[in-house]
Amino acid sequence: QTIYLKDYTPFGYVIDSVQLTFKLHPTETRVLSKIAFRPNPEATDRTFFLHGEELKLISATIDGKEVSPSVTDEGLTVDAPDAPFTWEAEVEISPSTNTALEGLYMSNGMYCTQCEAEGFRKITYYPDRPDVMATFDVRIEGSEKVLLSNGNPGASGEGFAEWSDPWKKPAYLFALVAGDLINHPDSFTTRTGTDVELNIWVRPGDEDKCAFGMQALKDSMKWDEDVYGREYDLDIFNIVAVDDFNMGAMENKGLNIFNSSCVLASQATSTDADFERIEAIIAHEYFHNWTGNRITCRDWFQLCLKEGLTVFRDAQFTSDMRSEPVKRIDDVIALRARQFPEDQGPLSHPVRPEEFQEINNFYTATVYEKGAEVIGMLKTLVGHDAYYKALDLYFERHDGDAATIEDWIQVFEDSTGRDLQQFKRWYSQSGTPKVSVKEEWDAENGIFTLHFSQSTAPTPGQDIKDPRVIPIALGLLAPGGKETHPTHVIELTHAEQSLTFDGLDARPVPSLLRGFSAPVILEQEIDNDRRAFLLANDTDPFNRWEAGGDLARDTLINMILKDAAPSPAYLHGLRRVVTDESLDPAYRGLMIQHPSETELAGTLSDMGEIPDPTKIHIASRALLAAKAETLSDILPALYADNQPTGAYKPDAEGSGKRDLANAAMSLMAKLGDLSHAKAQFASADNMTQQFEALAVLVREGQGAEAVKAFYDQWKEDRLVINKWFGLQISLAEPEDAAKVTEALTQHPDFDMKNPNRFRATLGALAGNHAGFHHESGAGYALLADWLIKLDPLNPQTTARMCTAFQTWKRYDAGRQALIKAQLERILATPNLSRDTNEMISRILG
Ligand code: ARG
Ligand code: ZN
Asked: Peptidase M1 membrane alanine aminopeptidase domain: which residues (predicted)?
């Protein structure tokens, strides 16, 4: 059934305290709860309904007297007094058979929890909604060496430990961990002098992979004090690494739980990209302590209140720790790859959705990444100082609250005096706006005019779109290349709007949407000469990169649609950027890449063309070869000069150099010279170089031996083996991809119950554009087979992977028919989960 934002009502009772006792057992864990309720003065409905799923109710009392609740699959209802009372219950649960990885479950013999969004109801009966907040006292009884929960530690002894969390929190922030774990300890002194004990807890054998995460945690704690004035608020902060986890990580109060792939890092086993990602996720979860935990969400429709803001904050952190332009470019690549297709397809939904069936299906790129873009636009519009002043007011006014987007907007209106009601459309309107720009040049009077228009195509459930507030950062360059008008921001608020510059000597070249100041599609009258000019002269690093990307896109489109040769303008521009020593290596590394095959399919579809995955793949490979030819004389030096010297460091400088050197290695391989890749594979002392060398060998069809050697070297390391699974599938030739995937699902190390391994295998197939969309339909059928198998075990991961099909209407009738048949086959599966049912129904439309 569907839940609507407009139906929100507060719960009939408030909670004064929660006491929980866990008697741990793999199949018969007992959970005792003692909860002090009193009538909520803000509510009229006194129905006493407690959520509860898959629980065996042993006993229930109110004020000590046994009661007999009426119990359904979703919870229980019982007559409760219209006065304060104590609820006590005992339930039994079975963590070891919990394959959905929601609630209390077991991973490699260790107990752990995942309660966001609605997992706590699988632990005990409770009003499992974020606006019900309480302090928790927890007692854990178990034989494991380490017993952890939220807050500060209390009494502990042989076989038990007690924890109490003084901060009121919703149940989704509850966590418990029990296992024979080892800690990597450290400490942090807050700016007011409190010493905080820090720990990263891991399984024995992983203790050498904690140092980087710990440093990232300390950097995050310092950064949030320096930039947002936010201090940590408990005596201890624990992080635990867990192998079986549906998502990246979880911000439980004082006890963050991480997918081990998002916290464990070492030079030998992690790539530079892994290090950067781990640093960002540690920061993200830590920053939730204020944006999410101290101020939480009234209901799940408000998810972007904490997620959009926290993604924005972690992006700010990464830009400060590393390179601002490189981070911005990486984020825009990801936004276009994941959020744009979502926003323009059958799963399109507003940043703040207004209805859902299963909230787990709304942890999306739109809520997270577009949600963060919305915060970025707000900051651009009000300015740096006003933004931080508004945030201070937000923390002051709403600390301890379960808040809404209305509260958030109100804070900005009150602190800046601006009317933000039109801006609020970014939260309610789905779809990616298109901004078209036409130029007018009055040579006689030296007047240059930009005519803007904005529109958004209809999306499911929203036929009519109103104009939004769109901040456009722009500058002007003189024809000689000098910037005459530095960046300033204009605000589009109407469907059509013009902007005039006068007193100009010559027709300027505008540089529009600098820094990607709004998540829109920009349509401008621009040819390749203009793009080459911006690539050479723009002062905005984002737009320089964008101009290079546009040239690459244009040449690829011509190669695909007209069998054209790669454009010399693009290749010459590329050569100039790659040899420009004033640019940092990471930036040059980014410039060498061209748009992915998936992105090209989207571009073609935007143009009204039907993308042909095979042609796209061939063109992409051909452009790679053309780049190699163009740069052939400089590649050996590019490779040699960018070998970082000294000890390996996963910082911006070291990873930038490795990235550029690896790009050179890859291009030399394209020219037939595999010597560098072979040597690098054999001698690398870090995963970045070893893995890239392996990838190049596999791509060139020379990888069989290296693939075997890599497996033998790393077979004991499950995170590295995920990479090994993924690589073989990602780089399989289109006609082999399904076969290679199928064979790997038969490998003894394949384990469908482990979400990382499942994603590394079936997710990699979905990511191999030409392979997944091979005209045989074998890719579609194989993915559908496995989704049907996984759904009864793990609905959340199954539903998420259904997004592989969301772009199906882009393709030709033959492929559409093949996909539709698979979608219908999944939908017809008996007992399909609510999660998967909702996703497939929406995708089918
Ligand atoms: N709040 C977590 C984060 O963004 C994500 C948890 C999502 N869990 C889920 N079951 N949908 O950091
Ligand atoms: Zn988050």
From this structure: 213-426
- Ligand 1 pocket mutation, candidates 250, 259, 277, criterion most atoms within 8 A of CB: 250
Average pLDDT in the 351-378 region? Answer: 98
Q: Can you tell me which atom of ligand 1 is nearest the CA of 360?
A: 11
- Which is it for strands 483-492 and 255-259: parallel, antiparallel or unpaired? unpaired
- Can you name the residues that pair with 56 across neighbouring β-strands? 92
The percent of residues in the chain predicted with pLDDT above 70, rounded, is 100
Question: Which atom of ligand 1 lies closest to the CA of 119?
Answer: 10
Catalytic residues: 285
Question: How do beta strands 29-39 and 85-93 pair?
Answer: antiparallel
- d(Cα 249, Cα 262) in Å, to the nearest integer? 7
Average pLDDT, the chain: 98
399 token code pair: 């600390």
Contacts of 672 (CB under 8 A, 6+ apart): none
Closest CA to ligand 1's atom 5:
250
Quick check: 238 and 199 in contact, CB under 8 A?
Answer: yes
305 CA to centre of own chain: 15
Query: How far is residue 440 from each of residues 58, 451, 822, measured CA to CA in Å?
Result: 77, 8, 51
What residue's CA is closest to ligand 1, atom 2? Answer: 250
CA-to-CA distance for 603 and 597, rounded, in angstroms? 10
Of all protein residues, the one whose alpha carbon is nearest to atom 12 of ligand 1 is: 250
Q: Count the Cβ atoms, other than its own, within 10 Å of residue 143.
A: 11
How many other C-beta atoms are found inside a 10 Å radius of the C-beta of residue 100? 21
User: 73: which residues sit within 8 A by CB, 6+ positions away?
Assistant: 53
CA–centroid distance, residue 27 to ligand 1 (Å): 26
Tell me the pTM.
0.99
Residues with CB under 6 A from ligand 1: 116-117, 246-247, 249-251, 284-285, 307, 360, 363, 796
CA distance 823 to 784: 8
Name residues with Cβ closer than 5 Å to ligand 2, which is an ion. Answer: 307, 310
| Tokens describing residue 845 | 């439309």
Sign of CA dihedral 720, 724, 726, 730: positive
Candidate from 101, 112, 114, 116 with most ligand 1 atoms within 8 A of CB, to mutate: 116
Distance CA 842, CA 825 (A): 15
Starting at the edge strand found earlier in the chain, the sheet holding 146-149 runs 103-107, 110-114, 176-179, 146-149
Locate the ligand 1 atom nearest the alpha carbon of residue 284 and give its number: 12
Distance CA 256, CA 610 (A): 45
Ligand having the closest approach to the CA of 103: 1
pLDDT digits (tens, 9 = 90+) for 328-344: 999 999 999 999 999 99
ipTM: 0.98
> Virtual CA dihedral for 193, 195, 196, 199, nearest 10 degrees?
140
CA of 561 to the centre of ligand 1 (A): 41
Q: Which residue reads 């959705």 in tokens?
A: 353
Rounded to an integer, the average pLDDT of 760-776 is: 98
Q: What pLDDT digit, counting tens, does each position of 245-282 carry? A: 999 999 999 999 999 999 999 999 999 999 999 999 99
Contact 202, 184 (CB under 8 A): yes
Q: What's the mean pLDDT in 675-700?
A: 98
- Residue 609 per-residue DSSP state: P
Name the phi and psi angles at 781, rounded to 5. -65, -40
If you measure from the C-alpha of residue 250 to the centroid of ligand 1, how many angstroms do you get, rounded to a whole number?
Answer: 6
* Count of C-beta atoms within a 10 Å radius of residue 179: 23
69-83 mean pLDDT: 98
CA-to-CA dists, residue 528 to 573, 576, 596, angstroms = 10, 15, 20
The alpha carbon of 99 and the centre of ligand 1 are apart by a number of angstroms equal to 17
3-state SS class at 498 = strand
* Gap from CA of 421 to ligand 1 centroid (Å): 29
Instruction: Tell me if residue 113 falls in helix, strand or coil.
Output: strand
Is residue 660 within 8 Å of residue 588, measured between CB atoms? yes
